[in-house]
Amino acid sequence: MDYTVREFITPCMAGLAEKAGPLVFQFPPQGRAVREPDLFINRLYRFLKALPTGPLYAVEIRDPELLTHRFFMCLKTTGVNFCVASHARMPSPREQIERASAVLESGAFIARWSLHSGFKYEDAKSRYFPFNQLVDEDIDSRDRTCAGQRKSYRRRIPGGISSSTTRPRARRHSVSACLPAVLPN
Q: pTM value?
């Protein structure tokens, strides 16, 4: 936890202060750990409970097997938001929002639009590098994300959309960290 606070949270909050948007913890695919989702969720719970209060936090995962009722309860009880991932490994953004909404009725979600949903990571990386312009529209992901956002709005669930790239004049900045091995045992 010391590393997370020292190398991620403190610099983000010092540099962005009130302009800081959600601090997103992106957990890459967990491999064999998803065979027993409860072990990951228990470790995640301990990690989230130990975070300093103040910033808005969100968790993004890349394993659909972890999108369980217990995972969303972990987020709800720790006051951490769910980050919808527009990623080839994950269900559609709309389906993720529907699953989250079943548990997080009074909570927020964040949508991080990082890759065109039709491409694997390596394919997208070679197609979009150096990631400094819009190469092609991802209308399907946009429509699905907007549909989920509308549904949440109708149910009075606050949510937000964050791009993985920061626009120069953006009022708030989303900051993410890839944390493959920081969860306590």
A: 0.71
Q: Is residue 85 part of a domain?
A: yes
The CA-based angle 104-105-108, given to 5 degrees, is 65
Label residue 23 exposed, middle or buried (CB < 10 Å: 0-12, 13-18, 19+).
buried
Beta strands 81-85; 57-61: pairing state: parallel
How many domains are there within the chain? 1
H or E, element range at 167: none
> What SS3 class is residue 111?
strand
Nearest partner of 113 among 149, 64, 80, 151, judged by Cα:
149
Q: How open is the CA angle 118-107-69, to the nearest 5 degrees?
A: 65
Which residue range forms the structural domain that includes residue 44? Answer: 2-12+22-178
Any domain includes 150: yes
Q: Is 184 among the domain residues?
A: no
Query: Tens digits of per-residue pLDDT, 68-85?
Result: 999 999 999 999 999 988
